[in-house]
Amino acid sequence: MGRPKVLLLGKIDHAHVAWSTISDIADVIQPKATNREDFIAESRSGAFDGVGAAYRTFDSVDITGKVDGELLDALPASIRFLCHNGAGYDQIDIAACTARGVRVSNTPTAVDDATADIAIWLLLGALRNLSAGINALRAGNWRGSPLPAPGHDPQGKILGILGMGGIGRNMAAKARAFGMRIRYHNRSRLSPALEDGAEYVGLETLLAESDVLSLNLPLNVSKPGRVCRFHDRPLRLTESALLQPSTRHSIAAPQFALMKPGIVIVNTARGAVMDEAALVDALASGRVSSVGLDVYEKEPEIHPGLLANPNVLLVPHLGTWTQETQQKMEEWAIDNVRLAVSEGRLKSIVPEQEALAA
Ligand SMILES: O=CC(=O)O
């Protein structure tokens, strides 16, 4: 048997030393293609034959498109592991991978600090409505005229966290330092140790009583036609018990209608967990007073209603964009490749495939 083969989709920018440990044990293949059509043709030509594991970056979607059934069918059947560099893996159809025996890993934990940090920055900036002042200053109008309305202090306010995973819990700890009271909603309640004093409430209470709502839930996209809803609703998945319900548009017009008037929203998860058009309406009506966003429904496109609104603080998906965190994420994903090649297992298999963990 020859040396194992690893497919590199995207680039290694930081963890060169860690990556050299992969080239020590495997032949690394990089595609020549720069778009999906050519990538599929390249794969069908046999260029990736024998590859057992692939490392992919978020930006490699520009080369391959989404990892769906069509792409997987074009890849050699030898692929058993897909190691994604990123916490969110909504670019990957996990059901399609599962059906083809491809195990998928992501990089949880590594992203927690940086993402929670930017969430806190957006939270404070949106509470203080800094965007209006920043825009006025850049336009040469100092603070603007009339002055932007004064913002709000975080102290004593309720922060409602929707999705209390690693990032949500990290954010809760940081928000406590600003005197915020933490509530959360998840599909299921956490252990007291993980709650760390945060109060578990139903989604409706979270929406109705939070002063600030932070979205920290993953984007899970279910197939059209499959009945699956978010939160405490009957889940009628027919194909695979491994699939989670869809979180797309978890926050849409009916949820905005339940929110405390004047609520501030922060989204560092994925744009599509919130209906962006409904958010524009909720800002216009004043139901939402201000918002801090790192992610957008159709990145890099941004809804013009968000760009035009001075109460919207915008960052171009930079949540994990620090040298330290980029390094940690690459190292984490490379650990997964190394384990896949040398031991046939992953360090952080995605939760939907937990039952497949070796
Ligand atoms: O958005 C960043 C990530 O998914 O890691």
From TrEMBL:
Keyword set includes Oxidoreductase: yes
- Ranges for domain D-isomer specific 2-hydroxyacid dehydrogenase NAD-binding come to 120-220, 242-319
The family database entries (InterPro entries) matched by this protein are listed as: D-isomer_2-hydroxyacid_DH, D-isomer_2_OHA_DH_cat_dom, D-isomer_DH_CS, D-isomer_DH_CS1, D-isomer_DH_NAD-bd, NAD(P)-bd_dom_sf
Matches recorded under SUPFAM superfamilies: Formate/glycerate dehydrogenase catalytic domain-like, NAD(P)-binding Rossmann-fold domains
TM ranges are none
Source domain of life is Eukaryota
**GO CC, alphabetical:** cytosol
Tell me the PROSITE patterns matching this sequence: D_2_HYDROXYACID_DH_1, D_2_HYDROXYACID_DH_3
Range of residues in the leader sequence? none
Keywords in alphabetical order: Oxidoreductase
Residue ranges of coiled coil: none
- Keyword field contains Oxidoreductase: yes
Please list the GO terms describing molecular function: glyoxylate reductase (NADPH) activity; hydroxypyruvate reductase [NAD(P)H] activity; NAD binding
Gene3D superfamilies from the xrefs?
NAD(P)-binding Rossmann-like Domain
Pinpoint the D-isomer specific 2-hydroxyacid dehydrogenase catalytic domain residues.
Answer: 48-350
Q: Which family does it belong to?
A: Belongs to the D-isomer specific 2-hydroxyacid dehydrogenase family.
Name of the featured protein: Glyoxylate reductase
**Which organism does this record belong to?**
Trichoderma cornu-damae
Lineage summary:
Eukaryota, Fungi, Dikarya, Ascomycota, Pezizomycotina
